[in-house]
Specification:
872 residues; alpha+beta
Length: 872
């Protein structure tokens, strides 16, 4: 893996030397089929040689060099290169190709490079991924490149600022259809695709196979009197076609296109708009222009809640925003990844609320997306939104909560700072000024400065160029008559990141009225420095709850004074505003993670008030947080009691929920996640068998697997039971579920086998690696996992060196002994870090992050043991 890295300095030098006029890429993927069922899903050639299955890739690159006679290199990761020609001169592949780069010497002013290679199909979701469907043996291909895996499919200059037009042609099996960024046609057995606009290598795309394909179209009258017509397509594996609600996908797509055309004043520039839902996908989705790829889990095989549909709509809109922020205008290097991801994350929620049925999208943003950001911003690896990305390994790890969710939160505040009209006008000028080009931070700030008249440099210094999250706490002084004499907001920052930022916040005052906790006073204020007095609220009736950052205008951790905290302990369920309630839940969870609130007290809040939560997304987030509180932050000796309380509470809410409702489904899934006692497991078994019923609860196939995992983990479902269930659901999804359940069984032999599959073999695909890890790590099996802490630290260096970065990340993060949460594990982590100071920075970052989570958990356990009462 180190030989495949590319540094920022190398990229800058190459960009200063070269400019690219165009690519012609010819792929022959007819080798994808043949012995599909007998090659383990495509890892090897199927001839017994053990060699990777390959396809032919022929690339012609036309480029210029502004220093004739200079040397440079092209990127290619391939098992072999058949021929290399530079300006008509044949080069010896053995001399110029080292497995990752092709050396190019004595360049001319104008050059043509032709590379004929054998590239490998992927089983890791990187490059050209090959998937064999267990249902029918069908073979499906798709590409995924970000940040730098196009070089696994064709020779190129793999960096975002060397944009060029691309022409692709693909030879594929006769019965297949092939899709690309541009419109394609088949003639003489070859699929040829329209030349793209100038785009970066990482957003080129090919999808091929016997996919199910549905079409529609979008039409819009433009301001100049012309009509824009965009062909729409949506595709998935044939096995998922019965579940594919393409009409809803197209509905959200059209709503998004209308919204962005209304606000961006720049017509969608990439012709057609296909959306492919593909198997074993590592990401949520990828913004390839004209051919967006999504993980196929966004096609729902069973009943799901509204939150799942909202999440899918958000991702559709996020990727669509990238057509402008990222594809049309692209960051120069990965330092400015935020220029696309932060904007797309913000625009996803902005358009979700403004254009679709999901008008409560900002609640989800406040509760779910910001939780991701708050965690990431307190890790030792936190970084400014504009990051220091030294190389491609850094870039791979920087697709994180800072770049996405914190960046989006900061942009939400920026809209409040400069005004929505000025912000959108700045975006319009940015697109027109830099179309098909590359930008840096200053390019965006300059247009926003023009449209708003604000000092963008100062704002950027505070919000984009510093790391860490501030905490805001209210301080209330009452006069003799019991009214507010002075209300101040106290701002704090961590010692490691002491920046106190300017915040525009709303402060809400709440009291109980007729059994409800309602807001009766509100003021907006600019909070700066350690203490800010909010004079507008002086004289108000004494509040029972003060909510700083009401309406979620800024990015901060909310704290409470003692009076407010007491009100939440008694009346959180009476808080009528759903956004305010979500903000309070988020704040209480942050207090639990910061060892300011005992974990058992957070669990008690969930048990008493989650059943009254109306927003299904917030409810499901509370379930996840309660699980995490018990597994990582509760004192070990209280965990059995906590498990019992959560299971009892989940069952009570399940039985009282409206029959057939999404809340009933959410509580059923939560019961499965916390079930451990005989009675709970008996009920799950009976629901599976049909000998027990809960009115309105449909135990569909997805819910069956959810019930089977705890049964497997507690020894109630053996290999035979799981094999029978796979026979019932012999699909790709069923296989993933079965693999997870198999690894969850409470046996030393099972854990040893899973460890070997993950660490000593590369036979598992990326999706099955994830499933095996998820089954392996069971909170109820800490004793069985104990032998693997020492083994983990012994193997991660080798894993990082030998596996692809995607699989290495899965293994290093997923197998960290987080459940062996003791000072001994913390000491072992510190010992590894001390002994491996020269390890790759990206590997050290993952271990440092895991170490920080472990230490935070131990502090939470100490808080829980010392202060937990279990009741308020």
């Amino acid at each position: 893996m180190p030989g495949e890295n590319l540094s920022r300095d190398e990229a800058r030098e190459r960009a200063a030397l070269l400019s690219v006029d165009g690519y012609d890429v010819s792929l022959d993927v007819r080798s994808a089929i043949g012995d599909a069922a007998g090659d383990g899903g495509g890892r090897t050639a199927g001839d017994g040689s053990g060699e990777p299955r390959t396809f032919r890739s022929v690339t012609t690159i036309r480029f210029r060099c502004n220093e004739p006679g200079a040397s440079s290199f092209a990127d290619l990761i391939a098992p072999s290169v058949t021929a290399v020609s530079l300006n008509g001169r044949d080069l010896d592949p053995g001399e110029v190709f080292d497995g990752a780069r092709i050396r190019l010497d004595d360049l001319a002013a104008e050059n043509e490079l032709v590379v004929d290679a054998r590239c490998a199909y992927s089983r890791t979701g990187e490059g050209l991924h090959r998937f064999v469907d267990p249902e029918d043996g069908g073979v499906y291909l798709y590409t995924q490149y970000e940040p730098a895996d196009a070089r696994r499919v064709f020779a190129n200059f793999e960096q975002p600022d060397l944009k060029a037009p691309f022409r692709f042609e693909v030879r594929a099996p006769e019965e297949w259809v092939v899709w690309g960024n541009g419109a394609g046609e088949r003639a003489d057995g070859v699929w040829r695709f329209a030349e793209t606009k100038p785009i970066s290598t990482y957003i080129t795309c090919v999808v091929a196979g016997p996919y199910h394909y549905v079409t529609d179209s979008y039409t819009r009258e433009l301001g100049d009197g012309t009509t824009l017509e965009i062909p729409l397509g949506a595709l998935c594996r044939k096995g998922l076609a019965p579940y594919f609600d393409a009409d809803d996908v197209f509905l959200v797509t059209k709503q998004g296109l209308d919204f962005f055309h209304d606000h961006f004043d720049y017509p969608y520039p990439f012709g057609k708009y296909d959306q492919a839902f593909v198997p074993e996908y590592n990401l949520g989705a990828m913004e390839n222009p004209g051919l967006v790829t999504f993980r196929e889990e966004y096609i729902f095989r069973g009943k799901v809640t509204r939150a799942s549909y909202e999440a899918r709509a958000n991702v559709i809109l996020h990727e669509m925003a990238h057509m402008w922020f990222g594809d049309l205008v692209t960051m120069q290097w990965w330092d400015d990844l935020w220029l696309k991801e932060s904007f797309a994350d913000f625009m996803g929620s902005f358009s979700l609320v403004g254009a679709t049925r999901f008008t409560d999208g900002w609640i989800t943003f406040a509760n779910r997306r910001k939780a991701w950001a708050y965690r990431a911003d307190q890790l030792p690896s936190t970084h400014p939104v504009t990051a220091d990305i030294r190389d491609l390994q850094d870039a791979k790890l920087n697709f994180d909560g800072i770049t996405y969710a914190k960046g989006a939160s900061v942009l939400k505040q920026l809209v409040a700072y400069v005004g929505q009209d000025a912000f959108l006008e700045g975006a319009r000028r940015y697109f027109k000024r830099h179309a098909y080009g590359n930008t840096r931070l200053g390019d965006l700030l300059s247009v926003l400065g023009e449209t708003s008249g604000r000092d963008m440099a100062g704002w950027a210094r505070s919000w984009l160029q510093t790391a860490g999250v501030n905490s805001l706490t209210p301080q209330v002084l009452l006069d003799a008559e019991g009214r507010v004499d002075e209300l101040a907001v106290l701002q704090e920052a961590a010692e490691s990141h002491p920046e106190l930022r300017p915040h525009r916040v709303a402060i809400g005052l709440y009291r109980r009225v007729d059994g409800r906790l309602v807001r009766y006073a509100r003021a907006e204020a600019d909070v700066e420095g350690p203490r800010t007095v909010v004079s507008e609220l002086a004289g108000a009736q004494a509040p029972e709850l003060v909510l700083v950052n009401d309406e979620d205008l800024t990015y901060c951790k909310i704290r409470f004074d003692e009076t407010s905290l007491a009100a939440l302990r008694e009346s959180l369920g009476d808080l009528t505003d759903p956004l305010a309630r979500a903000l309070c839940w988020s704040a209480l969870w942050n207090m639990t993670r910061d060892a300011l609130l005992p974990a058992r007290d957070f669990v008690d809040l969930v048990l008493r008030f989650a059943g009254r939560e109306t927003d299904i997304g917030v409810l499901q987030m509370l379930h996840a947080w309660a699980d995490s509180a018990l597994a990582h932050y509760a004192a070990p000796d209280w965990r059995p009691a906590g498990e019992r309380l959560l299971a009892e509470g989940a069952l009570a809410e399940l039985r009282s929920a409206e029959p057939g409702s999404e809340h009933q489904l959410a509580w059923a899934r939560f019961l499965a996640s916390v079930a451990s006692g005989p009675a709970d497991l008996d009920l799950l078994q009976q629901l599976l068998e049909g000998s027990a019923k809960i009115d309105g609860l449909e135990v569909d196939q997805e819910l069956r697997w959810a019930f089977l995992e705890p049964l497997a983990a507690h020894g109630r479902a053996d290999e035979g039971v799981l094999a029978a269930e796979l026979a019932r659901d012999d699909t790709a999804s069923g296989k993933r579920h079965q693999v997870r359940c198999l690894a969850a069984r409470p046996s030393a032999e099972v854990k040893a086998q899973a460890w070997v599959q993950l660490v000593e073999s590369d036979a598992l695909s990326n999706a099955l690696v994830e499933a095996t890890i998820a089954g392996f790590q069971q909170p109820s099996q800490r004793e069985l996992l104990a032998p693997y802490a020492e083994k983990y630290f012994a193997v991660i260096g080798r894993i990082w060196e030998q596996r692809s970065i995607q699989i290495a990340m899965h293994v290093v993060k997923g197998l960290f002994p987080a459940l062996l949460d003791s000072p001994r594990t913390l000491a072992a982590t510190d010992a590894w870090l001390a002994a491996h100071e020269a390890a790759p920075p990206a590997l050290r970052r993952l271990v440092l992050e895991a170490r920080d989570d472990l230490a935070r958990g131990l502090r939470g356990q100490a808080c829980d043991a010392a202060g937990g009462s279990g009741a308020f």
